[in-house]
Known about the structure:
The structure holds 2 protein chains of 2 kinds. By secondary structure, chain A is α+β, with helices and mostly antiparallel strands.
Amino acid sequence: MNEPPREDLEDLYENAPCGYISLQPDGRIFKANRTFAMWSGYEPHELIGKRFHDLSNIATRIFYETHFAPLLRMQGFFNEVALDLVGKDGRTLPVLVNAAERKDSYGKLLFIRLTVFNATERRNYERELINARAEAEIVSKKLHALNATLEQRISEAVQQRLSTSVELKAAHAESELREQFIAVLGHDLRNPIAAIGAGANLLERQLLDDASANVVSLIKGSVLRASALIDNVLDFARGRLGSGISLNRTTDQSLEATLEQVVNELRAVNPGREIITDYELFRPVSLDHARIAQMVSNLLANALAYGDADVPVRLTAQTLRNAFELWVANAGPKIPDKAMERLFQPFFRGEVRESQQGLGLGLHISREIARAHGGKLMVDSSADETRFTFTMPLQNAAETQK
Amino acid sequence: MTLRELDIAVSAVIRNNVRVGGRRDKAIIFAHGFGCDQNMWRFIEPEFAADFTTVLYDHVGAGRSDLSAYDPIKYSTLHGYADDLIEIARELELKDTVFVGHSVSAMIGVMASIKMPELFSRLILVGPSPRYIDDGEYKGGFTEHHIKELLDFMASNHMGWSEAMAPTIMGNPDKPELGTELTNSFCRTDPEIAKDFARVTFTSDNRADLRKVAVPTLILQCSEDVIAPREVGEYVAREVPKSELIYLKATGHCPNLSAPAEVIAAMRSFL
């Protein structure tokens, strides 16, 4: 085994992989190694007599004096202190410094030893870390701001939603109140109207002169119209209130008789107008007779009001193979396209003379009745004729017999 | 608010980590400068404990002060620090004290003595500077650019400094009084607060205050002090009406650590 090589202490000092500086108590350099001289760009002899401060930038000078000199005095050493030194050419030399005081046996400070490590790369790395942290802080602040904005927006949206919902509720409450009002009003109107109708019927049976008979007929006509209006209003209110139109379907009543009664009522109050009826009812039809009467009454009243007075209004009811069909037709002007769109909407009224003005609920209620029967109410209007057709599917015989 | 929080909020003694030694009629207050804490006075204060009530404290943000009491607005001028000093003196019911201020605390004492003259009988200013930045004829020793460089350095060098602020703990047979705990906290400062304190220290201008100092004042000027050069000490001596200037042989900015015997002798001759 070979002898280990002997270390050359002089060479170790001068060319060590770190810088050595020795300072007098007053901070002047009295010895420095070649490594440090090389790093700082000075010749070794140029460093002698310089103060450590002469090799420092201002920041390091201040910090050294205010922080590390006291620390060194208090502890007798410091380790890993980051300092910026300045080379002969003015370039910054970032270093890490360890320091230790050398004292005599009485504790008196003899000199200070500094070991200097070149820390250029390490400090660059630290600076990058610091920059990264600063950037992360910026991003985090932005994110925070964004979150705050989002929260703000959400709370605004919620606020808006809440107020909208409050408004909606208010509107609902209002319309509910209005519809209840209409329903109550309709109900309370029915009784006096029924009384007037009954009175007119009683009078009709008396022997009357022509003028009085005419008045009674007019009264009955008005009662009919008023009843129809009230029925429509009540149905509309019911539909809106959610109970909808309920049916009482029967097959054991004569549909023809029901329809004829409606026609006769309208004939009575529209003297001089002709209504031609055609019934081809060969199979039983399951209907709510009162409702169908209401629908036909509405359709006929419309036909009489809007139709050409010189041309008869026609009512046809027939059972087909799988369906029941009923239509009311009148001659007269075509219903304008614009009006067609809104014909079945509530409170829609066409152009008609003042005395015939209704509420605009007739067609709406009629269509609802058609729907309740599982059928539909359609309109066709041309220059020659306007026709409202109600069709509903017919249940087969077996089912009907049940 | 708990009782303890309440205490901290109202008590300057707790907030500023005040330590009272000696129990004599006359009090002497020691205030540390930028960089360290009350341990700066470790070699000086015991010498006076026999004749004075000695008061040591940390500025808020330094040493073991209550960091939560740090208010960046209050401490954006030296007035905040001067008010703390007055509060401490009042809470301890001190009057006619001797105030010893190192570095920036010299000016804090000057300001407090102007605000509340009855609290102070004498000022001892160690390495004072009323303004660090040159201004025309006046030479403070630094340019604005220098100070900006310092602040930038502190801002960009958090990591290096904060590592350095917590040096490895080792046995310290030379000074057994300097325990492990102390080694850890000495010179350790929150980097943000340190930066604020550096800014307020190095950008203040208290030249106009010097003339208003009414009490006898001793100025201790070091040799080769890069922070407070000789001309600045002489300027302070010229401006303060009842002042006395003593040049110390000690070099550097902290004679209270590097040459305590010389400082003690100068102080005794003045007192």
